[in-house]
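name: query_chain
kind: protein
chains: 1
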Amino acid sequence: MRAVRTVVGPRTRRDDVSSRIAFQEDELTDPWVALEPGADPAERVRILRRAHETFTEVGTVPRPVRAVVADSWRRSARAGVGPDGTADVELTDGDLGTYRSEHPLARVMPLFRELMGTFAADGEHLLAVCDAHGRLLWVEGHAETRRNAGRMNFVPGARWSENAVGTNAPGTAVALDRPVQVFAAEHFIRRVQPWTCAAAPVHDPRTGRVLGAVDITGGNGLAHPHSLGFVQAVARAAEAHLALLAPARPGADTPRLSVLGRDEARLVTGDRELRLSRRHSEILLLLARHPEGLTGDELLCALYEDESVTPVTLRAELARLRGILGPGLLASRPYRLTVACESDLAVVERRLATGAVTAAATAYAGPPLPGSQAPAVVRLRRRLTEGLRAALIACGDPDLLADWAHAPWGEDDIDVWRALAKARPTAATRTRLASLEAELTTPPGWARP
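structure:
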């Protein structure tokens, strides 16, 4: 962090020396550490509270508020967060359990507990883990501290993203994708200001995608460079552990079908991975959804709009598919799969059915077989897409809405853009929405200026 000096009038040698000293101190200060060694925590809290009041009243951020905190306060205000707000609990009971069990960070929770559990309990701190959208998945540690944190909804299932509750370590860490420490009155919401926390993002080692963050929360004693280094080291250990683990699989012998966002399905069965033609993809998807089987006439109606297509054509396709799949997997009279087949589409449907909208949106890689014109696939695609987008609009989460709106299948979805403009009214969002609404009101055949 470099100092910016403004010269007003002549300067004395003493002024110049003082400026150089201040400049050097700024150069040596780590902007990501909340409290430098030797600083008085009580005095810093008083200064930060005055700065916070100034920002909430007039919108300016005085020094010595760190740049990372000042930027976060501004983002929080733009997102519509109020200083007297509180976190919303979005998942409870079974929904929370289902979502946590399927989350990738569930696989490293034993590691988090081993590395941080004793430290949290003995130091009267909390170990917390959130997902990539700032929703808390686990909050563990000292019992009395956990009860106190519960009064501000720092509990599993609550959303602590920066755009929901303002500046806080887990929410800001996933927003910035880097380790961050937040001390006392640096928190944007007043009821959180008695707390101090440090968090670091955890990434999927294979894709680099942010999976969430690991956080340590407690008193002012955590405002030390060591706590920031500690959570960063724990996050790196979790990533290394995930890299050693095999990808989660529904079962060694369960065929797995991927149809979301791809015109040609991918089938993994045993040690084989098959890429299917579009027609074979359609057949396998429909059979996977109908374990009881489908007759030849039912398959004909499901696959072909053209009523002139004969049963002979369908039988030829099924014979070729049977040869690709190998013996024993595809039976006839009725046509059916001899073993249960898991699909990525079914995963999204299950999550939607339990209300786990974030989990459903995370698993949704695009419309199923988007190029297919098979009547049954078109209906299936429409039902899944409309169900998910309706859930996203009802949820109103700006992160999820933005992910959908900026995806190829959502870039012209005016209803989602309207919901996003309401949840996160940025200039770019308003501009895009205005463009879509102008297109909607332009008569066919007219060219807009």
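note: The domain at 249-392 is CATH 1.10.10.10 (Arc Repressor Mutant, subunit A).
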